[in-house]
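Box 3.1 A note on notation
Throughout this textbook, protein chains are presented in two layers. The first layer is the amino acid sequence; the second is a token string describing backbone geometry. Keep the layers aligned when reading.
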Amino acid sequence: MTEPDLKQFDPAGYRSIVFFTGAGLSAESGVPTYRGHGGIWAQYNYEDYACQRAFERDPVRVLDFHEVRRTHVLKCPPHAGHRHLARLQAAFPQVRVVTQNIDGLLQRAGIAVDAELHGSLWRQRCSRHGLREDLEAGPYRQRQCPDCGSWLRPDITWFEDAVDGAVFARTQQLVAGCDLFVSVGTSGVVWPAAGFAQLARDSGARMVEINLENNEASALYRHRLRGPAGVVLPAAFPLAD
């Protein structure tokens, strides 16, 4: 196994930097991951709570489940890794952020997110009248569209859903054009999002992975930094006080 390269990186030396974040980043704040020990889908069957068929069968049950998740997420504050990434972005306009997370922790830390690949707990959508933002804790302010009466579903890419083509196209453009690609807390197994690391490597980007342990995508990265993002991010990308 390749030992972690603990060198530091100067963002000023790169034209375009993409930080690509996953569930491991949020797990440091206490947000449950989705797979593995203690993950959400080890406790709940997605067919009951996280697919369009479940929503059509019992929208109240599905919305109740997501309201509980919203309440839990708001009890989980952004950590040092989130805060450092916000400082990096403020100091270097070439820092762009793409996330697979739906919890909104990046935005709460003051980070401008260029693409939410799998949607957000803090938006709903009507199939006829589009998106509605809902930033309140707990219950959604509205469960049915005020314009047509349809049930509003969370704006999340559920199991069996197609991805948002426009969001993925924007991400593809960002990743293909970056010269530094930094993966933070992602398992590298959720497709098609997992394909962006290969795209970055094929496009000639310098590849950095920040994670607690190796995974099946780690071989794509030249630099593998092991440890919590709240510790590794400030160490690998130091900023002057």
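The chain has a mean pLDDT of 91. The domain at 32-75+121-156 is CATH 3.30.1600.10 (SIR2/SIRT2 'Small Domain').
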